[in-house]
Amino acid sequence: MKAVSLEFRHVSRRYADLVAVKDLSFEVPAGKICVLVGPSGCGKTTSLKMVNRLIEPTDGQILIGGRDIMAQDPIELRRGTGYVIQQVGLLPHLTVGNNVAIVPRLLGWDAPRIKARVDELLALVGLDPAAYRDRFPAQLSGGERQRVGVARALAADPPLMLMDEPFGAVDPIVRERLQNELLRLQEQLAKTIVFVTHDIDEAIKMGDLVAVMDVGGVLAQFGPPAEILANPASDFVARFVGADRGLKRLSLTCVGDLNLQPPGDDFRPRPGQPLVGRRATLKDTLSQMLDADVSAAVVVDRNQKVLGVVTYDQIAAALHDGGSGAK
Amino acid sequence: MLDFGWMADHLDDLLYRTIQHIWLAGIAVGIGFVISFALAVLAVRRRATYGPILAVSDILYTIPSLALFAALVSVTGITLLTVEIPLVMYTLVIFVRNIATGFDSVPADVLEAANGLGYTGRQRLWRVEVPLAVPLIVAGLRLAVVSTLGLVTVTSILGDSFGGLGFFILQGYSRSFPTELYFGAVPSIVLAVAFDVLLSRVQRRATPWARPLMGTTV
């Protein structure tokens, strides 16, 4: 289904004695990933849960594709919106296949269509359908469970996905792999995704747009990651993104994005000079240069053909090109 | 010594009393289960009722059975109702506690995911909470069945038309005829053990997902 835009208009959520979300307004264009990030108690999860009405706003409007969610039946709204949570919440008494089939069943699809869809989705998230379809969640690793959780959320092809710290419960290596796979999937699927995390690095990596939230449910800054890193709107944002925000910006740009000058035919890398691929980030490239104690790295393609040379000065200059970044 | 000739002559009585025993216990367990299920759902959905519901079923359980049967005779006479009211009452404490604990044992993330996926309240109850509470519900069923099968013998004090196998126990005791006493006591024990074993099988069958090694055939 075609992705839809999502808009928060002056949304607040008050409880008896506290404000969880305060006058939140932002807009996510269709097909973009928006990451809500902030310390605990900033209302990011509350904001996410208001989108599918697991929590209802006390003030303001939330519009999905221009339609006010309060005008929609909450059950239909939830069936039409993908939802992934940190603890995954697979139903332990259902097999992997039946977990993925939950929403299609609730929607009343016929059996052959459900089966075909389950197999398609398991393959999509990198699980062999024949091997995994009939297993129970207790027989899976943490990473496999999380993949099933994503497949389940995608089952009815929702235009909007809500992901609440989806990779928070897996180890760092698995987390990075799942992040990369989600980005790869997103290139294919182009869903509108709202993604909650407390990890600023994850926010920068995953987000087309990042909403930094402060305690009390206040939106501290909203924009593309490169802009937030280059121009933090407040001391809070600057502290939250970290003193290494310059280095973080380097991770947004690949050496392939720089204006590389092809060297002459007689160019040969010096011994010990680092070789990097064009998809390497400026941060990793700089790290390798520091490690090798040299002032330039050589960019090569898959066949080790030299594409150009990257120097300290070029890396430093890239940061000052208005912080546009690769996204 | 036991009089095996007498036993052989009374096998048809044994069959009749065994069936009566199971029947009297079955009614109580069935009605008790339905009432308790409703109470447990109420207790879990409306937390404020949880404490009072359990407290009342606890208090009912403390009433001595013999006293209760005797007291009820003046109200409901010597009827099936007099037999079943106490039997049902004693199942409540076991069932309510186990079923409510069963619902409470469903992990919070599972409930949250179920809500987020778009189950209605009723669908969530029957398709998520009940199946996941099955191990504790069946555990409660085992306890309730065994304890009710025991209590049925006490109903023999209400006369010859009740009591199940307890009829032989009471008769044997009052006539100082051990053969008849054992003729009731031993089968009633066998019955309780048999049902317990049967239900423990059911319990294991009902939760295939709880066996992590099953299915990993490679």
SSE map:
The complex is a heterodimer of chains A (327) and B (218).
Chain A: E1 6-15, E2 18-28, E3 33-37, H1 44-51, E4 59-64, E5 67-68, H2 74-79, E6 81-85, H3 96-100, H4 102-106, H5 111-124, H6 129-132, H7 142-154, E7 160-164, H8 172-189, E8 192-197, H9 200-206, E9 209-214, E10 218-223, H10 225-230, H11 235-241, H12 245-250, E11 275-277, H13 282-292, E12 296-300, E13 306-311, H14 312-319
Parallel strand pairs in A: 3-8, 3-9, 6-7, 7-8, 11-12
Antiparallel strand pairs in A: 1-2, 1-4, 4-5, 9-10, 12-13
Helix pairs in contact in A: 5-7
Chain B: H1 4-9, H2 11-45, H3 50-62, H4 65-76, H5 80-104, H6 108-117, H7 121-152, H8 166-174, H9 178-205
Helix pairs in contact in B: 2-5, 2-7, 3-5, 4-5, 5-7, 6-7, 7-9, 8-9
Derived from helix and strand composition plus strand pairing, the structural class of chain A reads alpha/beta
The total domain count of chain B is 1
Largest interface: A-B, 31 and 26 residues
Distance linking N and C termini of chain A:
24 Å
